[in-house]
Amino acid sequence: MELPWRLWAETVSRRYAASRTGPVETCESVPSDVLPLVRSLRKVPAMTEQATAVIAPVATGRPHRVKRWFYIGAGLFMILVSVAGFGPSIIDQSGRKAPPTPLVIAHGVVASAWLLLFLAQATLVATSRVDVHRRLGRVGPGLAVVMSALVFLTTVEMGRRGYDLSFDVTRAFPPPGSSEAENAADILSPLLGFLAFPVLVSAGLWYRHRPDIHKRLMLFAVLGLHGVPLTHLTGYLIGYWPAQAGLFSLIGRAIGILLLSASAVYDKVSQGRLHPVSLWVPILIVAWEFVLGSVVVPSVAWREFATWLIR
Asked: Measured between alpha carbons, how far is 119 from 128 in angstroms, rounded to an integer?
């Protein structure tokens, strides 16, 4: 035998479902004693939506704009730095030692493709096209491998010549000139600094399912490419204003520090706190560069290896 309260509950449920097809006030099947309960039930969705709107407001204001444009701005900045670094010696070839070789041109094309890929990926995420972002990201690993190989080959080719084709790097950082081993070690030293790129890209791909980690690692991988174009720009400017060589080098180092700090500033503005990647990756990069400059590059082992590599 059904309990009276259970029968009453089922009656209310059936009549409430039937009343959904029209206004409660005109539903004759609902008795007057049940009508207040049905009216209160029909108000629940509106109350829920109102509560949701209060609890989870739409993100607006400066932090939202920063999140939307920061990575796009980083991609555009790196493209601008590359154009400013390599463009002058291409347009004005009076200070060049030789025109670009096919290997150098291939390296420039692939490096440009990498920067454009980063900009496209950042734009897709900012416009909520994550599905296209993931499909386009499949070309990233192969492009990174090709770029790493071309960096190695072009640097070794430069070591065998003894100078860069634009002569910008030689003007910015003149080789010691005391011996072939020291010259080779100095010219090939950018290879050691470039090792951070494949490491960061590999880590970023490994954490591709963790967007907060993935995007910061890929950002550091791209920003870490600023050194070569800035060196070229510094060398080009030194060619016209040799007395300001120290100032240009200081500005280049300041830009490098600002780029390492960019992710931390972004975190502080957009989230109010630092992400661990934004804190530890710059520390590790600075520590790695210190070890390279003070221990690895001056070592006899590196000089012998660099001399063997360019033969």
From this structure: 14
Q: Domain-by-domain residue ranges, the chain?
A: 4-55, 62-309
pLDDT in tens, 114-159: 999 999 999 999 999 999 999 999 999 999 999 999 999 998 888 7
Whether the Cβ atoms of residue 282 and residue 264 lie closer than 8 Å to each other: yes
CB 236 within 8 Å of CB 89: yes
Question: Taking the alpha carbons of 167, 168, 171, 173 in that order, is the dihedral positive or negative?
Answer: negative
305 vs 201: CA distance, rounded Å: 26
State pTM to two decimals: 0.76
DSSP 70: H
Q: State residue 58's pLDDT score.
A: 44
Mean pLDDT calculated for residue range 185-194: 80
Residue ranges of the alpha helices (H) in the chain? 4-19, 35-42, 44-55, 62-91, 102-126, 130-136, 140-161, 168-172, 180-187, 189-194, 196-206, 211-223, 227-240, 245-270, 276-291, 300-309
Burial status of residue 257 (CB atoms within 10 A of its CB: 0-12, 13-18, 19 or more): exposed
Place of tokens 């590790």: 284
Alpha carbon 218 to its chain's center: 4
